[in-house]
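Retry 2 of 3 after timeout on previous attempt. Resubmitting structure tokens to design endpoint.
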């Protein structure tokens, strides 16, 4: 019984590593795309957005504004 539990735990450790790896790859792709398109944003728009609301809210506003362009 104990040996089976160890095998199950090892399987989930490997599975979690795979999930973490996929999440890391997705995050790095999204972040690199964000950094790539950042110069396209108008700096004055960034300043106007940054004065209103929280950083998370401003990030969403920047993304919404970039889609409208």
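Retry 2 succeeded. Sequence:
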């Amino acid at each position: 019984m104990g040996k089976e539990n160890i095998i199950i735990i090892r399987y989930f450790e490997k599975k979690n590593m795979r999930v973490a790896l996929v999440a890391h790859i997705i995050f790095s792709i999204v972040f690199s795309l964000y950094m790539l398109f950042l110069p396209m944003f108008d700096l004055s728009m960034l300043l106007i957005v940054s004065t209103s609301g929280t950083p998370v809210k401003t990030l969403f506003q920047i993304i919404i504004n970039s889609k409208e362009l």
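Attempt log closed. The longest helix spans residues 2-37.
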